[in-house]
Amino acid sequence: MEDFCLRYLRTREDESLLICDLGSQDVNGSYRPLFCCPSWRYLGIDMANGPNVDLVLRTPYHWKEVASGSVDVLISGQALEHIEYFWITMLEVERVLKPGGLCCILAPSSGPEHRYPVDCWRFYPDGMRTLSRFSCLVPLEVRTQWEDEGHQDGSDWWHDSMLICTKPVASRWSALRRSLIRWLQHRTMLQGV
Fold first, then answer.
1. Which of 14, 22, 121, 160 has the fewest beta carbons closer than 10 A?
2. Domain residues for 9?
3. What's the confidence (pLDDT) of residue 131?
4. For the residues 55-64, what does the mean pLDDT come to?
5. What is the CATH number for 46?
6. Residue 193 to residues 58, 61, 104, 187, 190: CA-CA distances in angstroms?
7. Neighbour order of strands in the sheet with 55-56
8. Residue 125's closest CA among 79, 162, 88?
9. DSSP assignment string, 72-125
10. Cβ of 51: how many Cβ atoms within 10 Å?
11. pTM score
């Protein structure tokens, strides 16, 4: 996440950015210090109240608490594996991002089961690219840490995959069409969830 911040956001330190962190509860640390520029607003989002949580979502699949097209940057680290229907969540990520907005998601490709409250998934580069395409986001970078790098914090265990993507800037007609498709996908997939 630090690498993402340095390479994608450091030239934007003077811009007023809303940065939402999905799965922000401080269980083993927080990304908040990485996004502390005075012109940026960091908003920690999670499913339960706790340290580093500014906004509690009622459901991970329909974020009534976050307006469409209101988020400049959405980050999420080590949360997607705990969301049962993460593809529905990605439709919400696309909905809340502004056109041209960035998304950075880190999720493990390995490691032991760690239920919080569930642990459902592991992610590889092809899966991350597919997730980006499914949610109509444009992948900018996808990679997995396949080899141990000697991190002292134990993060080598997880061999995280990273997806950096952007919401395309579209014509009014294309944006409306995409909104309708997302609404239909969302409504259909929420049946029985």
1. 14
2. 2-190
3. 96
4. 94
5. 3.40.50.150
6. 14, 9, 26, 10, 5
7. 55-56, 40-46, 17-22, 71-77, 97-108, 160-166, 138-144
8. 162
9. EEEEEES-GGG-TTHHHHHHHHHHHEEEEEEEEEEEESS-----SS-------H
10. 12
11. 0.93
Give me the amino acid identity at 36.
Answer: C
Contacts 24+ apart (CB under 8 A), 27-34: 27/116, 31/1, 31/75, 31/77, 34/1, 34/2, 34/5
Q: What total number of domains does the chain contain?
A: 1
Q: Is 159 left (phi over 0), alpha (psi -120 to 50) or beta?
A: left
**Where do we find the tokens 């009014």?**
172
pLDDT-derived band of residue 115, with 50, 70 and 90 as boundaries? confident
Amino acid at 3: D
Q: How many CB atoms lie within 10 A of CB 126?
A: 11
Amino acid identity of residue 33, one-letter, is P
Alpha-carbon gap, residue 193 to 91, rounded angstroms: 15
